[in-house]
Automatic annotation (TrEMBL):
Residues 39-60 have a biased composition (Gly residues). Residues 27-60 are annotated as: Disordered. It comes from Streptomyces wuyuanensis. Residues 27-38 have a biased composition (Low complexity). This is Uncharacterized protein.
Length: 60
């Protein structure tokens, strides 16, 4: 794959990933938490990456 094609793919993919992540975050926040307070889910960067890569959440 040429570098320009890879660059264009990332250029198109980033807004999609950000939209998906923001919708997931909004869904988690709307699950009973009041606005401005952190959610009780404790989702960290590793949890979000696990969701994206299909690994799911870590077990405590």
């Amino acid at each position: 794959m040429p570098a320009a094609t890879v660059g264009k793919a990332f250029e198109l993919l980033i807004p999609v990933v950000l939209t998906v992540l923001s919708r997931r975050a909004a869904n988690r926040r709307s699950a009973g938490a009041s606005p401005g307070t952190p959610g009780a889910s404790g989702a960290g960067v590793g949890d979000v990456l696990g969701d994206l890569l299909g690994g799911g959440r870590r077990k405590p």
